[in-house]
Design brief:
The chain is of the alpha/beta class and about 190 residues long. It is built from 10 helices and 7 strands. Strand 2, helix 4 (about 70-85) and strand 3 form a beta-alpha-beta unit.
Length: about 190
Amino acid sequence: MKTEYDIIQLIKQDEWMMKIIKAVHTLDLPDSWVCAGFIRTKVWDTLHRNKLRSNLADIDVVYFDPDNISEENEKKYEQILHGIMPVEPWSVKNQARMHVINGEEPYTSTIDAVSRFPETATSIAVRFINDDEIILASPWGIDDLLTMQIKPTPFFIQKKELSIIYNERIHRKKWKDKWPMAEIHCLYP
């Protein structure tokens, strides 16, 4: 695996992942994507030659709707997704409101918000562009994902308080236990 095309093909060959992406597509949410660990886990499991898919704490669905930032809407969309695929751990978040929770300036799009995720390898998203073609967005590129480098995004490097959150997060996630070839880069150890 070396390119975005390779990652897209890996996803397309996974029937479960395609069902997830299709389910999200049926919601017709503005600027919607499935992101983060959903993709990272598949890539890292594949690179580790894991026979079974690692469990996901959640399936992150993100969208951008500045005209309706009600958290209740997010819960409504989660319920719709649970109706389609009931056993999946859906997490739906409107990125038009997440800047408030994260203490940042307003985001301009879903991918702007994805670029502010804690790790570069997790700052990745996928969606349908029509009924049968998917695209990948990777604001910080795919090198860290493919080389299993757990590094902070620039936003988490710039602020001391975010670097503390980053360090706590990578220790809590215990990614080295799941993927021993991953390399963790801590900030201010």
